[in-house]
Amino acid sequence: MNTDTDDDWSLVVPLKPLALAKSRLAAAAGARLRPRLALAFAEDTVDAVLNCARVRDVVVVTDDPAAGAALAALGARVVPDLPAEGLNAALAHGVRAVRAGRPYARVAALNADLPALRPAELTRVLDAARNFPRAFLADAAEIGTTFLSAGPGVELEPAFGGASRLRHLSSGAVEIRLAGVDSVRRDVDTGADLEEARALGLGPRTAARWLPVAG
């Protein structure tokens, strides 16, 4: 993690309470493993982000005490979801927390379910995002969004959830089109998604929980 310059990025990562997270994964993982996988996804995501050369810090927005403690132990700043009005309100709250101390910070929102995330690939996405006031990266299905950025003095205007790719395009954000950044696009909602992430190479915490089950 680079902290030498205010021009580096602050990333905001939202996380539902683990008891509610990744409900569609229950069919593949079962009720007991599902919340543990949700935490492992977040841990591997945050750990990769903190090892990205362009990242100054990470703010995790969550009301889950166990997840908050685990992610704080990795080096993230954890803030409670005070708005409690859904994903986009949580992201806006996280950006305010960043910019309360650094009003012109470059900020980006990133999904918490990127268990194959590679720091080098995230670096490429962040470098591309610097060229635009607001930019985003579509998910692997090219329907949703895994990454949304805003430059200094620019509002993030998050519109995550469902078919968010089109909403972000309509809002004026520029779509980042890069080859070779599959790990930044591979979010995980289902067992099939998790197997695709496995093919890319799971982070250590997700691998430790999933591979003994998956075989």
N/C terminus separation = 34 Å
Low-confidence stretches: 1-5
Using the alpha-carbon principal axes, give the shape: globular
CATH topology: Spore Coat Polysaccharide Biosynthesis Protein SpsA, Chain A
Rg calculated over all Cα atoms: 16 Å
Identify the CATH class: Alpha Beta
From the coordinates shown, what is the CATH architecture? Answer: Alpha-Beta Complex
Strand sequence of the main sheet, in spatial order?
Answer: 3-2-1-4-6-5-7
The sequence of SSEs as H and E is EHHEHEHEHEEHEHHH
Mean pLDDT: 95
Largest sheet: 7 strands, mixed
User: Strand content of the residues, in percent?
Assistant: 15-25%
Number of domains: 1
Number of strands: 7
Secondary structure: helix percent: 40-55%
Written account of the structure:
- The chain is of the alpha/beta class and about 220 residues long.
- The protein has a single domain, classed as Spore Coat Polysaccharide Biosynthesis Protein SpsA, Chain A (Alpha-Beta Complex).
- The chain is built from nine helices and seven strands.
- The longest helix is centred in the N-terminal third of the chain and has 18 residues, at about 35-50.
- Belongs to the CofC family.
- GO terms for molecular function: phospholactate guanylyltransferase activity.
